[in-house]
Write a structure and sequence with these properties.
Chain A contains seven helices and ten strands. By secondary structure, chain A is an alpha/beta fold. In chain A, helix 3 (100-110) packs across helix 4 (115-128), helix 3 (100-110) runs parallel beside helix 5 (144-156) and helix 4 (115-128) packs across helix 5 (144-156). The interface between A and B is large, with 36 and 36 residues. The complex binds adenosine-5'-triphosphate (2 copies) and magnesium ion (2 copies). Residues 44-45, 90, 166 of chain B line the site of one magnesium ion. One adenosine-5'-triphosphate sits between chains A (11, 13, 18, 20, 38, 40-46, 90) and B (134, 137, 141-146, 171).
Chain lengths: 227, 227
Amino acid sequence: MLEMRNLEKLYQMGDVEVRALDGVSLTIAEGEMVAIMGPSGSGKSTMMNIIGCLDQPTRGTYHIFGQEVSRISEREQARLRNREIGFVFQSFNLLPKLTALQNVELPLIYAGAGAKERYETARQTLIQMGLEQRIHHRPKELSGGQQQRVAIARALVNKPSLLLADEPTGNLDSHSSVEIMAIFQQLNRQGITVILVTHENDIAAYTKRIVRFLDGKVVVDQKIEQN
Amino acid sequence: MLEMRNLEKLYQMGDVEVRALDGVSLTIAEGEMVAIMGPSGSGKSTMMNIIGCLDQPTRGTYHIFGQEVSRISEREQARLRNREIGFVFQSFNLLPKLTALQNVELPLIYAGAGAKERYETARQTLIQMGLEQRIHHRPKELSGGQQQRVAIARALVNKPSLLLADEPTGNLDSHSSVEIMAIFQQLNRQGITVILVTHENDIAAYTKRIVRFLDGKVVVDQKIEQN
Ligand SMILES: Nc1ncnc2c1ncn2[C@@H]1O[C@H](COP(=O)(O)OP(=O)(O)OP(=O)(O)O)[C@@H](O)[C@H]1O
Ligand SMILES: Nc1ncnc2c1ncn2[C@@H]1O[C@H](COP(=O)(O)OP(=O)(O)OP(=O)(O)O)[C@@H](O)[C@H]1O
Ligand SMILES: [Mg+2]
Ligand SMILES: [Mg+2]
């Protein structure tokens, strides 16, 4: 489903070169559920952004659904981002002037859904996240964990085939985290490929493979026995 | 050092009243180290904002350093916020156009420190956070955990007598979290009062008292044996 070869991402800061990714090769098959771990600053979000077609590598190649992303048209990349990929961002990236409901409706607008269907689907997804009483709140009228759950709802609402979640439980208590991971596992059983970044071993335990980063490289790549 | 009595914080959303705080009474003595826990949306950040003089309750009283905050002048509240209180926000609140170093220098500007001293103090605090190589990066050129550590550095740089940290390790790997908690414990041993919100039991274990919220109320308030 997706294959990265020798990915590098370099930033030039004056005369210092920051190697955010320093030669990453990784293949993830359809239907896998993978945890990406590693210290702060080791390149996890950078790789997630490249996987999600939101950023381009400096060197190396990236194939998704059999196509090399640097050769795909802008229009097709946008289609992939909006229809095939759901992304939960580390900093949520909710639109501050829209309500929770409107934020979750956005991907459905791109997908061409009608107003009534959009409203109902967005609302149901927010209810699934425990946010029924908060659908008309704007982000600043929500707690941190509520904003995180809106970001998760938005990523799921289009039923993407690839779900990318960058620290999706960072602001959630253990009860909400367990609920979110149960939802992710259920989606994975339905065939959705799930890649999530986490710092927590408890969360990684819900996945079937752990990939560890250090200084922009993959240093561990291990299948795990699930309980 | 700080005393809250019957605090309420209510938001009117159309014809629905949201009770973010629903009668909270809490006393925290100088030199304590307290963990605030509880489900997403239970009122923790709301209470932290009131403690930090960033928000006013709808009802109830709040005394800090022996003064009732609603009776303190705007000018004195600003002085408390800038000189006595260090706040690590759940969403960091870094200024996007400033570098890490400039963000950390801000409280020192309020405190009237000279340029050379500011630069050096801010830089040392960032080095203590493991960010020596990132001091001239702007927030969008930093990883999530690096931004969180800049927010922590900014809260500490003025040597406040009260440190408020709202989920300070949410984006940090366990190694960085251990380092941050060691710093907080060291500050506490020097006499600084530390109140931190966390979802993680491992982090709460570094403190001496756990206060649990549920639906805007305190439901547990328990001293803990430290290891
Ligand atoms: N400006 C606002 N208008 C309306 N409701 C609000 C506003 N700010 C917060 N709330 C509501 O108040 C409640 C408490 O919010 P708060 O941010 O204190 O929760 P929290 O305990 O910090 O949660 P989390 O662990 O998710 O960060 C939430 O249900 C939230 O939706
Ligand atoms: N625009 C940029 N310019 C310069 N350096 C950058 C930029 N974006 C990221 N970096 C650097 O690249 C490195 C990797 O960042 P990345 O966000 O991928 O880390 P991460 O593994 O997600 O960390 P965290 O766990 O803290 O979220 C970091 O050291 C960061 O400072
Ligand atoms: Mg990251
Ligand atoms: Mg909060």
